[in-house]
Design goal:
Length: 501
């Protein structure tokens, strides 16, 4: 066959840049969306934040008049209906009222906080027991930097300081010394003539640092260091030290009968000794949080009003945007200059960006409303009343594709009276019940957690026994499934849950 040119007609689905932008904004989390909005504000002069108390009508009217080449607005643009911020709740802003609230000059003997309320003036006093400065600091600190800070306060020679820095570098995030002292000693310059005894002495100095138990070489030494720091009058301290030093392996195997015989203690006495050991921290390094704290900002707020569950967007997390009326007034339709073309393109992008934000909020509201409609039992009674729910159910209810529902529910959070949950938390698989119904996996996990919490500590429930108890409630679950749900809840096997209680 000879190559030839053929003209054909066909249809093809093409994603416009505006649609791509809407989809990208849809899958962003609240924090990422705020960053995206800030970048749009920095790059597009037509966009600006809508502050509280400002009149929103004038911006769209001026933009509409500018599009028509008029000097004054003639009618309200339809763009106002698609904007994120509305003027229903906005109040008229009076500059005279604002100027009256600010005095012309401040007295020389007063501070700014005496007249204006700031965030610092709202901080609780030092006498408040609930005040926790560490919980309100955002900068994380590594364990190594925390130990080096204490090392700088400790008087020691240059050689000992070199040894201490080397030892601190060998301590992992859990607070344990990873390297062997012999290997550490061999790693120093032979001209320094550092012996292992010197390294061990410096290690003892580091083990006196905070957090207590840091620098230990194994669990036994870590617990012994923490017991050593307790007051001498602590009850059962001597027995706890003896148990850690001589019988820690027996305690790990939970052979309490053998432990009582070896330590010559009664059951109640051994229980109190074990409680003292359990109050210690086997991972002291975990007390120092190196990573930055991550804050969850809910996208949707759910509350109950007059026996009805109401869903609303978190307006505080969504900055309100509008078109800058001054810049929009410079745009003229008949002008084809480069500056006017640039401003017209920026105005078009600003409108599309605000429209995409509104589309994101509307889709999020539809999905959240349907989720609340399906999971009213969870909101009223807790996890045990969670119903099975999949993406297809919500997609059918809102008339969208499952992929869109997946984007909406990813990294989006809902604030409920029971806590803050990711939207994906409300989706779960199901198992069949004896009556022919369905039970969600979330409800089964809640039931398992409840059964374990109420079990006899001396004879904990095995996975087979839990499966049998679930079957008595009409829930048909295999033992392997119970084990999988138990592990996802962080519950140890029955052999490790045995306690002297």
């Amino acid at each position: 066959m000879k190559p030839s040119l053929v003209l054909k007609m066909g249809q093809q689905l093409t994603m416009t840049p505006q649609l791509q932008q809407a989809i990208r904004l849809l899958q962003l989390s609240t924090l990422d969306l705020q960053q995206e909005i800030q970048e749009a504000l920095d790059s597009n002069p037509m966009l600006e934040r809508q502050e509280d108390g400002e009149d929103f009508d004038t911006s769209d009217q001026m933009a509409d008049a500018a599009e028509k080449g008029d000097t004054a607005p003639t009618h309200q643009d339809s763009f106002q209906e698609s904007s994120v911020a509305t003027n229903n709740e906005a109040e008229n802003f009076d500059e005279s009222d604002w100027s009256e609230r600010i005095p012309n000059e401040l007295p020389v003997d007063t501070a700014w906080e005496d007249i204006y309320q700031t965030s610092a003036s709202n901080l609780p006093s030092n006498d408040d027991d609930e005040w926790d400065f560490s919980a309100r600091t955002s900068a994380g600190e590594s364990l190594q930097s925390h130990l080096l800070w204490q090392l700088n306060l400790a008087p020691m020679s240059d050689t000992d300081r070199l040894i201490a820095v080397t030892l601190i570098d060998c301590i992992n995030d859990q607070g344990y010394l990873d390297e062997n002292l012999a290997d550490i000693t061999a790693g120093f310059d032979p001209e320094l003539e550092i012996e292992m005894d010197e390294v061990e002495v410096v290690l003892r100095r580091i083990q006196s640092f905070e957090p207590t138990g840091v620098g230990a070489r194994d669990l036994r030494e870590c617990l012994a260091l923490q017991l050593r720091q307790l007051p001498s009058h602590t009850r059962w301290l001597t027995e706890a030290q003896r148990l850690v030093n001589d019988h820690l392996d027996v305690l790990a195997s939970r052979d309490y009968s053998l432990l009582m015989r070896r330590m010559k203690l009664k059951e109640d006495e051994l229980r109190q000794v074990i409680e003292l050991i359990q109050s210690l921290n086997p991972r002291p390094g975990s007390q120092i949080e190196a990573s930055e704290p991550e804050y969850v900002v809910p996208d949707v707020i759910v509350r109950k009003h007059n026996e009805r569950w109401l869903v609303e967007l978190n307006q505080e997390a969504m900055p309100r945007l509008r078109v800058n009326p001054q810049y929009a007034g410079f745009v003229r339709r008949a002008d084809s200059s480069a500056d006017n073309t640039f401003m017209r393109n920026q105005l078009q992008e600003a409108r599309w960006f605000i429209k995409s934000l509104q589309s994101r909020n509307e889709t999020l509201m539809k999905v959240a409303t349907q989720i609340v409609e399906h999971q009213r039992g969870f909101l009223d009674y807790g996890d045990e009343a969670m119903k099975p729910l999949v993406l297809h159910d919500i997609a059918e209810a809102v008339g969208m594709h499952e992929s869109t529902i997946s984007r909406v529910t990813t990294q989006k959070f809902m604030h409920t009276p029971r806590g803050i949950y990711e939207l994906k938390y409300f989706f779960s698989s199901h198992v069949s019940t004896a009556e022919g119904g369905e039970c969600s996996s979330t409800a089964i996990r809640a039931i398992i957690k409840k059964l374990v919490a109420a079990e006899n500590a001396k004879k904990p429930l095995s996975d087979s026994k839990i499966a049998g108890l679930l079957e008595e409630q009409g829930i048909q679950v295999a033992r392997r499934t119970v084990a999988k749900y138990r592990e996802s809840l962080g519950i140890a096997p029955s052999s490790e849950r045995k306690r002297l209680m």
